Amino acid sequence: MKDNTLNYYNQNAVTFSAGTISADMTQTQHRFLDKLKPGAHILDFGCGSGRDTKCFLDARFSVDATDGSSELCRIASQYTGINVKQMMFQELDSVEVYDGIWACSSILHLPKMELRDVMCRMRDALKSFGIIYTSFKYGTFEGERNGRYFTNFTQETFREFAKDISGIEQEECWITGDARPGRGDEKWLNLILRKADTI
Question: How far apart are CA 144 and CA 6, in angstroms?
């Protein structure tokens, strides 16, 4: 994650959390959780306010949560009641630990070169046939905008990007409007990826 992006979240953590914590992600959360067994082990990778971590905990899943922003970690820890670990995406080094990784609107802040490495780290952190949910702003933009770095994708550009990442298969892909009030015209690419049995 670019330094400017991290600074943005540390400086705007309170307002960012307030603007995202009530966003209705119910349908997408259920779409992800329905693919997991009860009590499965989930990593909320870039958890922000802790909104989704709390949902997963309330549904009796085992959850680890991380974020690169120390301020968001503090807010999310208070909100969820668990210790949210401050960690950059590139620091993920778990091997076959998680049944599912939830990376909602988080790894989109990585340039494509860094994103490829992080997705391999996510794959390695999953158990066999584990799943990843992730989302990107819909489009072809890559660069800094309003103080944060973004890598956007369409269905076609993500498929092209991911084709040489071994051991990950695209299982579902769909487009939604932004869940935050007043931003429904902004489109998001949602993906569920599954770790293959062999790499």
Answer: 12
What's the CATH number for 3-195? 3.40.50.150
Q: What is the pLDDT of residues 22-38, one digit of tens each?
A: 888 999 999 999 999 99
CA gap 135, 84 in Å, rounded: 21
Q: How far is CA 4 from CA 19, 78, 86, 197, in A?
A: 20, 25, 17, 38
The tokens 């579902």 sit on which residue? 172
Q: What pTM value is reported for the model?
A: 0.95
How far apart are alpha carbons 11 and 5 in whole angstroms?
10
Give the strand pairing for 62-67 and 85-86: parallel
Q: Answer whether 139's CB lies under 8 Å from 154's CB.
A: yes
Residue-wise pLDDT for 84-117, tens only, equals: 999 999 999 999 999 999 999 999 999 999 999 9
Rounded Cα gap, residues 101 and 123, in angstroms: 9
What is the amino acid identity at position 184? G
Domain boundaries, the chain: 3-195
